[in-house]
Amino acid sequence: MNRGNRVLLSCVYWAFVLYVFVPLILMVLVSFKDSKFIGFPIRSWTFEWYTGVFADAQVLSTFGYSVVIAVLSTAISVVVGTWIAVLLEGRRFWGRAVIFGLTVLPALVPGIISAIAFRIYARGLGIEPGMGAIVWAHAVHNVPFVVLVVMARLSTLPKSQIEAARDLGADPLIAFLRITLPYLVPAILGASIFCLLLSFDDFVRSFFLGGYEPTLPVLIFAKLRSGMSPEINAIATVALILTAVVGIWAERFTRRLKKETEG
Question: Membrane-crossing residues (predicted)?
Fold first, then answer.
């Protein structure tokens, strides 16, 4: 790569960084503004909006509600996705391509269309809007990501380890529990964190399938309808920091666990 291409690539990279991070930085700065109106310049600073967020029972309750939904949907999607990945990887059978296509389809369908379809299907099954419907929709949407991550990890598993376990008398279940599952732990953990964050931040499916108790993205949307205020920025900043901390920790922990497993 010549110098001109390197300079161009560097400019594109930093332009992308600015495009992503400048709005986030402005959002965080406005959350400290000592005024109810969004805008610059900021003449005085305050932590009042953050103390209000942590003192607001509705916000805390909604945050806990969103976390519970994310954990439940992630647990379901990890179990189902891992099972499908083990079924598909390394096997050739009639209908495999169809099963794989149907598995990844929920990740390809636009969110609004997916939410409408889930709403119609839930009504047909007699599922009332609320936590159960949201968990179900989030789990179905997250399964493809688990399948893709676990299948990628499975493709690097040395077949000789499974064959050695079978030669030593292990049945397929014991071989899976002793060899395959420990090898998949880094991928399962990474997929779990990704699904957790996806579910926590999901707005469209939560909006269409939610009941009277909103998730955090739906609550932020409801507050936006009455106008922008630094309170909304404070809520968004807290959610941003928490998701960033969880994501960074998961990335480092997964990388270290993967090295230990391969070592």
Answer: 12-32, 63-86, 98-121, 133-154, 175-200, 232-250
Q: Is residue 6 part of a domain?
A: no
Q: What per-residue confidence (pLDDT) applies to 19? A: 86
CA distance 118 to 136: 9
Between CA 197 and CA 41 the distance in angstroms is 33
pLDDT digits (tens, 9 = 90+) for 188-241: 888 898 899 889 988 999 999 888 888 988 988 888 877 777 888 888 888 888
Mean pLDDT of 58-70: 91
CATH code where residue 238 lies? 1.10.3720.10
In a domain, 76, yes or no: yes
- The rounded distance, in Å, linking the Cα atoms of 164 and 236 is 51
134 phi, psi to nearest 5 deg:
-65, -45
Copy the structure tokens of residue 207. 């909006």
For 198, the token pair is: 């996806």
State the sign of the Cα–Cα–Cα–Cα dihedral 200, 202, 205, 206. Answer: positive
Q: Residue 185 class from Cβ within 10 Å (0-12 exposed, 13-18 middle, 19+ buried)?
A: middle
Give 35-49 pLDDT, tens digit per residue: 777 767 777 788 888
Nearest Cα neighbor of 136 from 111, 115, 109, 108 is 115
